[in-house]
Amino acid sequence: MSQAKILVVDDDKNIRRTVSMTLESLDYFVHTAFDGKDAMVQLTGDKYDMIITDLKMPGMNGMELLEQAIAKYPEIKIVLISAHGTVDNAVDAMKLGAVDFLQKPFTPKELRNLVHNVLATEQIKGESISEYKASLKAALNSARKRDFDSAIAQTKQAIGTDPSNPQAFDFLGQLQETIGDFDSAIKNYRVAISLDPTYKSAKDNLDRATTNSNSARPKL
């Protein structure tokens, strides 16, 4: 993600220049703002991937900027920097949505590594989401053609990409139930519910599969 756009916010002109030069050396697009209010104005006119902001600034400080920016642009990544950093500051910042906290003085290498890691992680996450959706879409198409073996394999591929999403487990259960594998279907419905206890589709499917499974068992 070398072409990411970053907004650097600090009332100290030298800090703004130093941070900008450090990040521009990695081919990031870097703009600057002299305080929180200036930053919010710039955010309305352009799309940024990340904000790096000082904590202590006149007027709107870094924590206030963090709250307002996250409220309006929830996808943006925000890193707070400060010479006054404490554990409490870091914890509060994380609760409000910051992705990291860097205490001054920091080296250019520390800054570059932090920014690279945050943006690289986000890029990988985005690629995983795309792969998950593509696998699940392929599974749906296979299921419509009644090619259940392919549909099951593609759904398992989606699960491997994002095992935290209940949707694929629920769909896998439906496929397994369709071919009469009730035990496996019930297990996957339960996994989906464990990931999201409010997932109604999996709950309804579990009730149905349990009933059908009991009906299909031979009477003694």
Instruction: Bin the strand percentage.
Output: 5-15%
Helix count?
9
| Helix coverage percent | 55-70%
Q: Please list the strands of the largest sheet in the order they lie side by side.
A: 2-1-3-4-5
Query: How would you classify the helix and strand content by structural class?
Result: alpha/beta
Order of helices and strands: EHEHEHEHEHHHHH
Question: Could you please describe the fold and organization of this structure?
Answer:
The chain is α/β, with parallel strands linked by helices. It has helices at 13-24, 36-45, 62-72, 87-96, 108-144, 148-161, 166-178, 182-195, 200-216; strands at residues 5-9, 29-33, 50-54, 77-82, 100-103. It has a five-stranded parallel beta sheet with strand order 2-1-3-4-5, sandwiched between helices. Strand 3, helix 3 (62-72) and strand 4 form a beta-alpha-beta unit. It is elongated and about 75 Å long.
Descriptive terms for the model:
220 residues; alpha/beta; elongated
Write the layout of secondary structure elements.
Elements: E1 5-9, H1 13-24, E2 29-33, H2 36-45, E3 50-54, H3 62-72, E4 77-82, H4 87-96, E5 100-103, H5 108-144, H6 148-161, H7 166-178, H8 182-195, H9 200-216
Parallel strand pairs: 1-2, 1-3, 3-4, 4-5
Helix pairs in contact: 1-5, 2-3, 5-6, 6-7, 7-8, 7-9, 8-9
Can you summarize this structure?
The protein contains nine helices and five strands; from the N terminus they run E-H-E-H-E-H-E-H-E-H-H-H-H-H.
